[in-house]
Specification:
single chain; alpha+beta; two-stranded antiparallel sheet; about 20% helix; about 40% strand
C-alpha cells in the first residue's frame, strides 16, 4: 500500500489559493493575497489594503480581517498535510491597531495542532512597513483526515 506525502513551496500554496478563490463565493475576496511562504503547518501572505477591504473610516474592515484569518488559517491547516479542512468550529479575533487604505499587510498563519477531527491554528496580521501588530486570531476547524484536495501537484504518492 502506498503512502501520500504533501509537496510544499510557493507554487503549491499559490495553486491552492487560486483553486479556493476561483468561485463566486466570499472566498473570491482573497484573490488579492499573494502567498510568500507555504511550508509545513504555515502559510504567509501579503496584500495591499484597498477601498473594497475598508470600513467607512478608511481602515481595514474587521469583517474582512476575520475573512483573512479564516482563509489563511485554513491554508495553514492544509499545509499540515493531515487532512482537508471542513467547517469552522470556533474563531476569535482581536483588533489591536489599524491598517489604512494603501498599507501593505502580512498575514501569518500557523497550524499549531491537528488531531483526528479538529485542527487548531493561530494568525497575525501585521503592517509590512514597521511590523506593527494589527489583528490576532485563533481558529478551530473540523478536518476530514482521509480526503485530498483537488490541487494538481499537491500530493506525491510513493510505493512504500
Amino acid at each position: 500500500m502506498g503512502s501520500r506525502t504533501m509537496n510544499y513551496g510557493l507554487d503549491i500554496g499559490r495553486k491552492i489559493l487560486m483553486v479556493s478563490t476561483a468561485g463566486k463565493d466570499l472566498n473570491r475576496m482573497l484573490r488579492g493575497v499573494k502567498i510568500v511562504d507555504f511550508s509545513p503547518n504555515r502559510c504567509v501572505g501579503e496584500m495591499k489594503v484597498e477601498q473594497e477591504h475598508a470600513n467607512p473610516h478608511g481602515t481595514l474592515h474587521g469583517a474582512f480581517s476575520a475573512l483573512l484569518l479564516d482563509g489563511m488559517t485554513t491554508m495553514a491547516i492544509v499545509a499540515n498535510g493531515k487532512g482537508v479542512p471542513g467547517l469552522s468550529v470556533e474563531m476569535s479575533t482581536s483588533y489591536l491597531s489599524a491598517a489604512k487604505i494603501g498599507d501593505e499587510i502580512r498575514i501569518t498563519a500557523n497550524c499549531v495542532k491537528s488531531g483526528k477531527s479538529l485542527a487548531f491554528a493561530e494568525c497575525e496580521i501585521r503592517l509590512v512597513k514597521d511590523d506593527k501588530l494589527v489583528v490576532t486570531g485563533k481558529h478551530i476547524k473540523h478536518v476530514e483526515v482521509d480526503n485530498t484536495l483537488p490541487v494538481p501537484g499537491l500530493y506525491q504518492e510513493s510505493a512504500v
